[in-house]
Amino acid sequence: MTARLLPPAGPQRVLASAQLANSIGDGAYYVTSALYFTHVVGLAPARVGLGLTVAWAVGSLAGVPLGRLADRRGPRGTAVLLALATALAVASFLVVDGFVPFVVAACAYATAQSGLAAARQALLAGLVSAGDRTGLLAHLQSTLNAGLAVGAALGGLALNAGTREAYLGVLALDAVSFVICAGVLVRLPSVEPVSARPRGSLGVLRDRPYAVVALLNTVLLLRLPLLSLVLPLWITRRTEAPAWLVSALFVLNTGAVMLFQVRAARGVTGLATAARAVRRAGWVMLAACVVFALSAGASLWVAVGFLVVGAVLQVVAEMGQSAGSWQLSFDLAPQGRVGEYQGLFGTGVTIARTLGPLLLTGLLVEWGTPGWLLLGAAMLAASYGMGPAARWAAGRRAEEMVRQPELVP
Fold first, then answer.
1. CB atoms inside a 10 Å sphere around CB 186
2. Cβ atoms 216, 389 nearer than 8 A
3. Which residues contact 380 (CB under 8 A, 6 or more apart)?
4. Which of 344, 315, 350 is nearest to 329 (CA)?
């Protein structure tokens, strides 16, 4: 199993080990944090939701400047500092005792996490050749899912205990996992920072073609809240399927990504293959939406069958879209500005996780079949728009190379 999850020895293996270290802590945190903040800290669920929305909005804004910092000051040192900052932010949750301290700690956590993601991508770009990046990201995604699964099991033990000490133990575990992550990242070779070039205060935001690619990717990432929120509500409110199927579908998704993401990414080697992968994923996601819609009103086992088939189609679409978008995000970023550009591209995850639950709950759970069809059509349209947007962005990169030959790697 380890050979499947981890890439070859060297910087790639070290990056995967760092991912594994903090994903175990994150997995435990994800399954326990809501109950900790409501049952132990004593916050109302609505206030927890509001605080996290504010925090991730702040984090999404911080991604670009922190990514730029990684480019200018060196991605390894920046990533190490941000991993330690994340550990400190998680540790601060241990002592929050009200809404305002919670929001402050959550903003620090979201900011550090967003910056760490961008710095890691810049570090990866500096250590791994362009042809190997998508394959490595597939390994990292598999490693991430494995770590989350282990962490979720540990978090389940804390939920079963249900004590304040158990919840505090989970937070301590997550904080320590980011300290370990920082220690692992220190083992990597340093990547030379790039000299600053005047680009204007908006930086990557002035690059309209790349911004369009990032926006289309955000639409495709609306699939993120499906498994964690929308499908549980859909299953319990709109179908005859048993509630335990929610857990089964989560295990199916996590296991499939862990085992098959690397294989799914093997054919993605450039802009053309990446655009095709995203386009195919759009069709598969449309099919998944149709099948999910068919589960409403069906008998128990027919509904279970539709939901399982839909979940299989959804995870196939997820793996194809992920591989294609990874390739596009790196290939379309100019030399020396990967951290800054990844900071913008990474905001798609934050936006999808922040606004997606509100949007998709009304669209799918309330509207039913028309909502599923509309979501599938939107994702298909976004997937078909990705190719022209990528060619536009690639054309801009080529023009920059002509105007500024020193940017040629």
1. 15
2. yes
3. 282, 283, 285, 286
4. 344
Hey, what amino acid is at 28? A
What is residue 298's DSSP assignment? -
Q: In degrees, to the nearest 5, what angle opens at C-alpha 318 toward C-alphas 309 and 137?
A: 140
Q: What percent of the chain has pLDDT over 90?
A: 51
Burial class (CB in 10 A: 0-12, 13-18, 19+), 318: buried
Instruction: Please check the confidence at residue 409 and state whether its pLDDT lies above 50.
Output: no
C-alpha to C-alpha distance for 15 and 143, rounded to whole angstroms: 10
Residue 199 has pLDDT above 60, yes or no: no
- Separation in Å, CA 352 to CA 119, 220, 349, 359, 382: 21, 9, 5, 9, 14
Query: pTM of the entire structure?
Result: 0.81
Residues with Cβ within 8 Å of residue 201, at least 6 apart in sequence: none
Which position has the token pair 């494995």? 146
The pLDDT of residue 87: 97
How far apart, in whole angstroms, are the C-alpha atoms of residue 169 and residue 24? 13
**Integer Cα distance of 257 and 397 in angstroms:** 32
Q: Which range has the worst mean pLDDT, 62-71, 226-235, 303-312? A: 226-235
Query: Do 252 and 311 meet the contact criterion of CB atoms below 8 Å apart?
Result: yes
Q: Report the candidate in 110, 128, 109, 82 with the shortest Cα–Cα distance to residue 338.
A: 128
Q: Write phi, then psi, for 328 (nearest 5 degrees).
A: -65, -40
For residue 274, the tally of other CB atoms under 10 A from its CB is 28
**CA nearest to 126, candidates 344, 339, 362:** 339
Residue with tokens 């190997």: 132
CA distances 119 to 57, 76, 244, 312, 353, Å, are 19, 7, 39, 33, 21
Rg (CA), the chain: 21
58's tokens: 């702040």
